[in-house]
Amino acid sequence: MARVWIFGQDINTDQIVPGRYAPIMLKNEDDLRLYPFVEHRPEFASTVRSGDIIVAGNNFGCGSSREYAPLALKMVGVGAIIAPLFARIFFRNALNLGIPCFTADLTGQLADGEQVDLNLEAGRITSADGRELALPPPPTFLREVWSAGGIVPFYRQHGRFPGEAA
Amino acid sequence: MAQTLSEQILSQAAGKPVRAGEVATVAVDLVMMHDSLSPSIIKIMEQELGAERVWDPERVAVVVDHVAPAATVQTAEKQNEVRRWVQRQGITHFYDVGRGISHPVLVEEGVAQPGMVIVGSDSHSTAYGCVGAFGSGMGSTDIALAAATGRTWFRVPETVLVRATGRFRPGVNAKDLALRAARELRADGATYAAVEWHGVEFLTVMERMTLATLSIEVGAKAGLVPPVGIPQVAPEWLRVEEGATYSRVVEVDLDTLQPQVSAPSFVDNVSDLGDLGRVAVDVVYLGTCTNGHYEDMAAAARILAGKQVAPGVRLMVVPASRDAMLRATQDGTLATLLAAGAAIGTPGCGACIGRHMGVLGPGETCLFTGNRNFRGRMGSPEANIYLASAEVAAATALAGYIADPQDVL
Ligand code: SF4
């Protein structure tokens, strides 16, 4: 089971990882895992479990290009992020790192702290009381990148960019 | 079929006509990376991609601007690693501490030119739209791939048109236009889209950069001003075409535009300065790629000439580039600012991302000429950041509270 973490709208990259906690500012780069939402939601990093799901409002990840924001979420094992709209750089970064992002509005349908089952293949969330929520299938070229494990493995495997003719 | 500026540029770069909505692989003309993310980009290139060399050492630009000069032993060490890598790669466009912020520097150096596709490891890479380039920000992995291959992919964006009419009144400028557009479009109003700014041919290149950098704050992939009325020469194929499709049009009447202020902690939380009430400030910070240009310092100096910053207010001025600082030194602008009580920093990003050179403490209020007022952006999450123009910044420094330039001129 995965815990649902509910976030509001316009969550920016300074809230996910403030610039002061960038890897270049840290003595040990692996410590980045201690800092997702360090100020916005201090209990997140210490209690999040691998596979947990972030369900957010509109425009998740707006702001800077810092890939260490989604990287910090990947380091703590975030299993998927679901929001009605993602800021584009964050979305690309998450895609590149192989973090599944689904464009859907589930705010109000799931509660913070709720335990659910996430079936990525089927694109489905099942709540503890048996409710099923469908996740819209991502476009083919995005799915290709996720299943390769990110853009670098994709490029190394295929020698081309997603959407480019083979 | 008529095309938007983005469609024209991406068609050239893709080697075939492309339209909004298509996913295209394109050749990039320039890849920019800065000190903050270069270490991770180099690591991804070397360790994950197995790429020993950049695709073209003359088309990769590296700028040390985010923590310049180094604030800690770690940042000093990381910057030295980047310098060694730059040398090994034979990268020609390397701009070290003090040269300034990547965006104005690449324009001043003539590296960024109209019609180019420029990707940068910085979200404000939309800045290059000030010369009519398609500039876009990306994360470390995308930049590593682009630096290794000279290519990237884009979904060709729809375009949101901001059409200005009339002329600014005294004390009102490009920042007010940009904030007015953000107020209308909101923080996600141009997500996955490009913004084109029309009706602003009378602005200088750096004034256009104010509009181009703020384009990301409405979510945009690129923010372009048509390249007419500037010294840079645009390729013949690049011009505004009658009948191009715009997904949305926002009209701004400059004749009636008032000074705009964005209140904490979202950029689109904008109102007319006159509706703000009295907001006392501790710090006025003039700088960044959005408004640390020569024009901004000169406008502030006109307001501050012969006067003194209000007691209890700190005025920080961090020029966007050495060129801007040099010009402001030569014509007396900096002397005027210093005489009024300003503290001057090394050209670069300064405290814009809260790492050094004037970070804010808890409970402080700052009037900032930058582009983001997110909680914690400039230091303490308990500081309050208001965004406005350099002229509002100067008026505020004099008054001690957020003030209309008209009232102090
Ligand atoms: S001045 Fe601020 S917004 Fe501009 S590049 Fe530097 S950190 Fe980014």
Blueprint (SSEs and pairs):
The complex is a heterodimer of chains A (166) and B (409).
Chain A lengths: L1 E5 L6 H4 L27 H4 L5 E3 L12 H8 L4 E4 L4 H10 L3 E3 L11 E5 L4 E4 L4 E3 L5 H9 L2 H8 L8
Parallel strand pairs in A: 1-2, 2-3, 3-4
Antiparallel strand pairs in A: 1-5, 5-6, 6-7
Chain B lengths: L4 H10 L8 E5 L2 E5 L3 H11 L11 E4 L9 H17 L3 E3 L6 H7 L8 E4 L13 E4 L2 H10 L1 E5 L3 E7 L8 H12 L8 E5 L6 H10 L7 E3 L23 E6 L6 E3 L7 E3 L10 E5 H4 L2 H11 L9 E5 L3 H9 L2 H8 L2 E2 L20 E4 L15 E4 L2 H10 L5 H4 L1
Parallel strand pairs in B: 2-3, 2-5, 3-4, 5-6, 8-9, 8-11, 9-10, 14-15, 14-17, 15-16, 17-18
Antiparallel strand pairs in B: 1-7, 12-13
Helix pairs in contact in B: 2-5, 6-7, 9-10, 9-11, 9-12
Name of the top-level CATH class of the largest domain in chain A: Alpha Beta
Tally of individual domains of chain B: 2
Spans where pLDDT lies below 50 across 5 or more residues of chain B: none
Count the strands of chain A? 7
Number of structurally distinct domains of chain A: 2
Question: Would you kindly provide a brief summary of this structure?
Answer:
Chain A is built from 6 helices and 7 strands; from the N terminus they run E-H-H-E-H-E-H-E-E-E-E-H-H.
Task: Characterise the protein shown here.
The complex is a heterodimer of chains A (166) and B (409). Chain A has 166 residues and is α/β, with parallel strands linked by helices. Chain A has 2 domains: 2-135, Aconitase, domain 4 (Alpha-Beta Barrel), CATH 3.20.19.10; 137-166, no CATH class. Chain A contains 6 helices and 7 strands, in the order βααβαβαββββαα. Chain A has helices spanning 13-16, 44-47, 68-75, 88-97, 140-148, 151-158, and strands spanning 2-6, 53-55, 80-83, 101-103, 115-119, 124-127, 132-134. In chain A, strands 4-3-2-1-5-6-7 form a 7-stranded mixed β-sheet, covered by helices on one side. In chain A, a hairpin with a 4-residue loop joins strand 6 (124-127) and strand 7 (132-134). In chain A, helix 3 packs across helix 4 (88-97) and helix 5 (140-148) crosses helix 6 (151-158). Chain A is globular and about 45 Å long. The mean pLDDT of chain A is 94. By secondary structure, chain B is α/β, with parallel strands linked by helices. Chain B folds into 2 domains: 5-252, Aconitase, domain 3 (2-Layer Sandwich), CATH 3.30.499; 263-408, 2-Layer Sandwich (Aconitase, domain 3). Chain B is 30% helix and 19% strand. Chain B has helices spanning 5-14, 38-48, 73-89, 102-108, 140-149, 174-185, 205-214, 288-291, 294-304, 322-330, 333-340, 390-399, 405-408, and strands spanning 23-27, 30-34, 60-63, 93-95, 117-120, 134-137, 151-155, 159-165, 194-198, 222-224, 248-253, 260-262, 270-272, 283-287, 314-318, 343-344, 365-368, 384-387. Chain B has a 5-stranded parallel β-sheet, with helices on both faces. A 5-stranded parallel β-sheet of chain B has the order 16-15-14-17-18. In chain B, strands 10-9-8-11 form a 4-stranded parallel β-sheet, covered by helices on one side. In chain B, helix 7 (205-214) links the parallel strand 9 and strand 10 (222-224). In chain B, helix 9 packs parallel to helix 10, helix 9 (294-304) crosses helix 11 (333-340) and helix 9 runs parallel beside helix 12. The N and C termini of chain B lie far apart (49 Å). The mean pLDDT of chain B is 97. At the A-B interface, helix 4 and helix 6 of A face strand 1, helix 2, helix 3, helix 5 and strand 7 of B. The complex binds iron/sulfur cluster (SF4).
